[in-house]
């Protein structure tokens, strides 16, 4: 019995480390929104992502995209156009987040209804 408890605790710690690793990569105010913008359209220009995400600055978007590139979630392509166009798409590894992003979107829609519905009903 003691051995099972220790195995369970060891497995739980491993799972908690995995959650922390995920949060380290995806944390911050903007990363999920950036990934969602790219995921929805498959490929997005820098200016399109900037337009999609209300409140983000050029500098912050650039910083966040670089971090997502470093974590192999986003691929940056420079297109041979005049003026030069930069396009982003999810990598194969980044595409593994698609289901999570879709679930977060669905949850966010339901959560907004829950909160606004209750607030409206109480007035």
Automatic annotation (TrEMBL):
UniProt keyword annotations, A-Z: DNA-binding, Transcription, Transcription regulation
Keyword Secreted annotated: no
Domain of life (superkingdom): Bacteria
HTH hxlR-type domain sequence ranges: 3-116
SUPFAM superfamilies found in the cross-reference section: Winged helix' DNA-binding domain (SSF46785)
Matches recorded under Pfam families: HxlR
Database matches in Gene3D superfamilies: Winged helix-like DNA-binding domain superfamily/Winged helix DNA-binding domain (1.10.10.10)
Keyword Transport found: no
Name recorded for this polypeptide: Helix-turn-helix transcriptional regulator
